[in-house]
Design a protein that fits this description.
The chain is mainly alpha-helical. The protein is built from 7 helices and 2 strands. The protein has a single domain, classed as Four Helix Bundle (Hemerythrin (Met), subunit A), CATH 1.20.120. InterPro entries: DinB-like, DinB/YfiT-like.
């Protein structure tokens, strides 16, 4: 009898936990109104955020560093990224480019970090004003290319990703861990 009573008490204690576990998982959040634009924006913001963090992390004395004499310096890469962001996002929206020639006119870390942050903010506003329907509109860029507005954003994201790879190499050559590798776990040691 004592065993049956213990089993009953245990069952009564376990019942609420079992019922809670069986409750349906929360419904997934509703899809955004413009899922293609939202997806593109999310990827761009992740990559451009890494560029900004890298620009902030690299010491000022390394802004003139070149991996080889025939390539851009680290600072020029950051300026180039700012220029490209402004250009692509202006093309996508049909607005005038808000800032040009940053790569050729800015050299200090403070100026370049501010310029790339401003360019990323400008692109953020461009995304805020975009919809999937508007993004599907075909526009002409570079004089002869007819592409969808959202494809211009994709070109910018690809360009940002390409140059983030350069930035990572420059940081690694200077012994600095790039932002996207900071929270990565240490590699497991090889078995002996």
């Amino acid at each position: 009898m004592k065993c049956k009573f213990s089993a009953l008490v245990l069952g009564l204690i376990a019942l609420p936990a079992a019922l809670l576990a069986q409750q349906a998982a929360p419904a997934p959040s509703a899809a955004p109104a413009n899922p293609i634009t939202a997806s593109e924006r999310g990827l761009y913001m992740y990559l451009s955020g890494a560029v900004v963090r890298a620009a902030e992390k690299m010491p000022e004395e390394n802004y003139s560093f070149k991996a080889s004499p025939d390539v851009r310096s680290f600072g020029q890469l950051i300026g180039h990224e700012a220029d490209a962001n402004n250009m692509f996002c202006a093309l996508a929206t049909g607005e005038p480019n808000p800032a040009k020639n940053i790569e050729k006119t800015k050299t200090s870390k403070a100026d370049l970090v501010a310029a790339v942050k401003d360019a990323v903010a400008y692109c953020g506003k461009a995304f805020d004003g975009m919809t999937d329907a508007k993004g599907a509109e075909i526009i002409k860029i570079f004089g002869s290319m007819n592409i969808a507005r959202l494809t211009v954003f994709s070109l910018n994201t690809a360009h940002t990703d390409e140059h983030y790879g350069n930035i990572v190499t420059y940081m690694r050559l200077k012994g600095i861990v790039p932002p996207t590798s900071e929270s990565q776990p240490a590699p497991a040691s090889a078995p002996k």
